[in-house]
Amino acid sequence: MPVSHPMRLRSLAAFASFAFAALTTSAADPLDNAIALYTAKRYPEARVALEKITAADPRNAAACYYLGMTLRARADTAALDDALPWLEKAATLAPANATYLADFGGTSLQYASKHTSLSAATKGRDAMERALKLDPADLDTHQGLFEFYVQAPWPLGNSAKATAHLDEIRRRDPARATALSVRLKTDAKDFAAAFKLCEDLLAKNPDDYIALYQYGRTAAISGQNIPRALAGLQRALTLPPPSPAAPAPSNIWNRIGNLHEKLAHPAEARAAYETALKLDPANHQAATALTRLK
């Protein structure tokens, strides 16, 4: 089933410097050290540390959660399959933890998309709905459920529920809601409407980061308005992302690469993808595109 990407966009940046410092503190708790390794993206070391903790204490919900997240971060073909049981166990052990529920739910929806699994889709949806009851302000989970209800086939899809989640996002973060509306138009191949939404925003604020990015995304998918889209993406690179959930500069460089591919400029596309990967080695879209060009 074509369940879309429901991954939550949590940022641990504020914790990163503290966590990394914990790596050098011999007296630190083993779990703190393991979480610090995860936060520092030292995933192989984090996995070893977390596997030791879960072997010694199988009911340690935090260790199960971070082991699942560490396995998911591998992003290889087996990552979801390996991560999901640990994230489900964490959510089961700590059913009042909204973070555990939401990340288990998001991963379960990805697994459902990969394996066409109705049971995984249902589990993922239900976990994310429970997470929102605990934390109604979690926009990442609202977004994941919005996209799920929009794209899941009957009987799982539900336009009324999708609208309710989009309304809640709009109430709390109008820019994100607009970006989602543009994406819906683009994904439905209503490119004229998608460009119009972006143009209306840019007429009010030429430095609207989200509108600049979404205009570029629509151009990359449609092959239309490429010169204007390139200029807009270059402009976005000079602006700070408005929130941790906004597309990162690595994502912008990936779209620049897409547009240069449309223009049959392989050298420029290759350079853009390489820049995207320098900024974020986990940008798998850029990595795949770069491999295709070589």
| Cα-to-Cα separation, first versus last residue | 32 Å
Low-confidence stretches: 1-27
Shape: globular
Q: Can you count the helices?
A: 16
How much of the residues is beta strand, in percent?
under 5%
Helix content: over 70%
Mean pLDDT: 88
Given the helix and strand composition, which structural class is it? mainly alpha
Q: Compute the gyration radius: what is it?
A: 20 Å
Largest sheet: none
| Element string (H = helix, E = strand) | HHHHHHHHHHHHHHHH
How many strand elements?
0
Would you spell out the secondary-structure blueprint of this structure?
Blueprint (H helix, E strand, L loop, with lengths): L12 H10 L7 H10 L3 H14 L4 H12 L6 H15 L4 H18 L2 H17 L4 H13 L7 H14 L1 H14 L3 H14 L4 H14 L3 H11 L12 H14 L3 H14 L4 H10 L1
